[in-house]
Structures are given as structure tokens and as C-alpha cells.
Amino acid sequence: MNPLIEIWREIILGDQKSWVLFENGTCVILMEPQAVLSAQATALMKEWGPVHAGSSAGDFGTITLDQAAGWVVTSHHNDILTYVGPAEMSSTDDVVIGLLGRSKRNQDAQELEIVHVEDKRNQA
After folding, report:
1. Best CA proximity match to 7, nearest among 55, 67, 50, 52
2. Contacts for 8 with CB less than 8 Å, ≥ 6 apart
3. How far apart are CA 102 and CA 92, in angstroms?
4. Would 58 disulfide with which of 1, 5, 53, 74, CB 3.0-4.6 Å?
5. Tens digit of pLDDT per residue, the chain (124 long)?
6. Distance in angstroms between the alpha carbons of the first and the last residue of the chain
7. Strands (E), the chain
8. Burial of 15 (0-12, 13-18, 19+ CB in 10 A)
């Protein structure tokens, strides 16, 4: 199993949230899940994932994780987040971490390779 799946299971707060994980660590949390989660996440990534420097699409923030080692890099869409692991970084500088996470999000938006779908609908 992809270790990113377990990391995201630890990171995401709330057992009821459905989400889709892309190959480079970007996770799309689907607050209003539609019929086909992978199609919904892909559409969101196509629109909100690409980085456009100098616009809000280039903005990011970093969150140091308590639940797992590493960081989550936020984007201009509240439900599109990218994981950066400690093994990927030689620095703990927020800007360096954020730039890597933003780059990974952009790569996921270009490649659109889904590695996992976590469907929490209709689970008691």
C-alpha cells in the first residue's frame, strides 16, 4: 500500500470526509461529494491545481503536522492540500517547504494520476 494513504488518513480530521489522493502527495478533500469522486477531484485539480506565479494560484501556506511527521502545504483552494515529508527536505524553512509542496501540486495537476479514493459516503 502507498504510505501516503496512511499519512493522509492520519492528517484528515473527521472520519466522514471523502478524499482523493494524487501520485505526488496532493489530496483533494471532497466536502460535497458527487457521484464519481475521482472525476470530481480531477475537475478540481484541473481548475485549481496548476500554479500560476504572480496570481493567487501561486499562493501557499505551510502547516507543521502534529498527527504525522512533515508538513501540509495549502493552496488557494481550501480543500486542495499537498503533503511534504521530512525525507524530502533538508530545510525546515516554511518558504522552501511551501515551494516544494506547490511544485508537487502543480505536477499532480498536470499528470492527474490518482493513487487512491477514500469514499466515506454511506458509512455508519
Report:
1. 67
2. 19, 21, 27, 83, 116, 118
3. 15
4. 53
5. 789 999 999 999 877 899 999 999 999 999 999 999 999 999 999 999 999 877 777 789 999 998 889 999 999 999 999 999 999 998 889 999 999 999 999 999 999 999 999 998 876 4
6. 25
7. 18-22, 26-30, 61-64, 71-74, 80-84, 114-118
8. exposed
C-alpha cell at 2: 502507498
Give me the residue label for grid cell 496532493.
Answer: 26
C-alpha cell read off for 96: 522552501
Looking at residue 98, its amino acid is: G
